[in-house]
Specification:
This protein is mostly beta strands and about 375 residues long. About 10% of the residues lie in helices and about 30% in strands. The chain has a single domain, classed as Jelly Rolls, CATH 2.60.120. It has a 17-stranded mixed sheet that branches. The longest helix is centred in the last third of the chain and has 23 residues.
Length: about 375
């Protein structure tokens, strides 16, 4: 994937960026478990606002490590117009394959169902049951051969800049991404079989899920467990200022929560399959939701990921009675940065050429730390 995102090792050399990372609190929610071929679905209302990246993505743990083949699949909301791009990111070094999904829908003002279908012969992206992109055997092989142990399900929200995501202004905070449900269906013998569904009907972090506590890709924020909350059957990821973390509005209900597509159907059965979808520009963005104030704060966390840490206690209590990815970058929206841990800035040729000197500095600094018997951060590039 082509990015302007800097890795932690690069960002650590910049006092300015390090200071900026402490100004805004972002959020990441993910599953510890990895899954192979199947259908990955989530009912999501993306966060509105220029410069706000709001995403649903699949990630192979450890992809950011030096010498590792990168595997990632993205739905990423970008820009003030709230459009979504898809991206199968893979390679050594990682290569960007982003494309804008042309949809007649309000992606930030309404919930929609986003689906990845990962099979041995294709990878497809669907929105509300309509296929908007399909990549064939070459892409599928890159994942089959290099992500054989599976990928994790991730969601995150974080601030971008003019090179990726738009022009972020902290004055619009807080903003929120809402997740109504997530489900996974395995794939074998040409058919999808439902395996599990998470409806976030509790007030704490569900079993098997974890939250992030590392800097976001541009190092303009740090993921905070307090910015992941569960209330009224919705998982909410918030982007806030550091001194105002937590969910402060009641999540909007999802009127289509019970109308998800048939989990046993293949995308090849959809009339919009093979790269179809609507042909107009992306839908307009919604505003920050008003509503009764939520109570409490804090968030739950646990993690078994070798390249990511999670921390925290209990999730934000209910606001109402209870019923939730450095490659070189071409500037602009054709790159993708949903990545997970602090090194999510995706190393690639252009970044190394541009920041080679800083990288050398960072490596020497890390080597010095190791020689002093100190332990580096998880996922830090060496």
């Amino acid at each position: 994937m082509k990015y302007s995102c800097l890795s932690l090792s690069l960002a650590a050399a910049s006092l300015t960026l390090a200071a900026e990372a402490g100004a805004v609190a972002s959020a990441e929610l993910y599953q510890n478990q990895t899954y192979t071929y199947g259908r990955f679905e989530a009912r999501v209302r993306f966060a509105a606002g220029d410069g706000i990246i709001s995403s649903f993505f699949l990630w192979k743990p450890g992809s950011e490590m030096p010498g590792t083949f990168w595997n990632e699949l993205d739905f990423e909301k970008l820009g003030a117009d709230c459009h979504v791009q898809t991206n199968p990111l893979y390679g050594l070094p990682v290569v960007d394959h982003s494309a804008r999904a042309m949809l007649e829908a309000d992606l930030c003002g309404e919930y929609h169902t986003y689906t990845f279908e990962w099979t041995p012969s294709y990878i497809a992206y669907l929105v509300d049951g309509v296929e908007v992109r399909r990549d064939g055997e070459e892409t599928a092989a890159a994942f089959a051969d290099n992500a054989a142990s599976g990928m994790q399900i991730h969601f995150n929200i974080w601030p971008g800049d003019a090179t990726f995501g738009g022009n972020f202004d902290a004055a619009i905070l807080p903003v929120h991404q809402y997740i109504s449900w997530v489900q996974y269906s395995s794939f074998a013998d040409g058919a999808f079989t439902p395996e599990w569904r998470e409806e976030f009907d509790g007030s704490t972090l569900p079993s098997g899920w974890a939250v992030g506590n590392w800097p976001s890709p541009k190092n303009l924020s740090t993921h905070q467990p307090a910015n992941v909350a569960f209330t009224t059957g919705i998982a909410a990821l918030s982007l806030t200022t550091d001194d105002a973390t937590g969910l402060v509005v009641a999540p909007p209900p999802d009127p289509g929560a019970g109308s998800e597509p048939d989990p046993t159907a293949s995308s090849s059965d959809n009339p919009g399959a093979a790269g179809g979808g609507a042909s107009s520009a992306a839908g307009t963005g919604g505003g920050v939701d008003d509503g009764p104030l939520a109570t409490g704060g804090g968030a739950g966390a646990s993690s078994s990921s070798p390249t990511a840490e999670a921390a925290g206690e209990d999730a934000v209590p209910n606001a109402a009675p209870s019923g939730i990815g450095e490659p070189p970058a071409s500037s602009g929206e054709s790159s993708s940065c949903s990545h997970v841990v602090s090194a999510r800035a995706r190393p690639g040729a252009a970044v190394w050429l541009t920041f080679g000197a800083v990288t050398v500095f960072a490596r020497r600094r890390r080597r010095d730390r190791l020689e002093r018997g100190r332990r580096g951060r998880p996922g830090e590039l060496g």
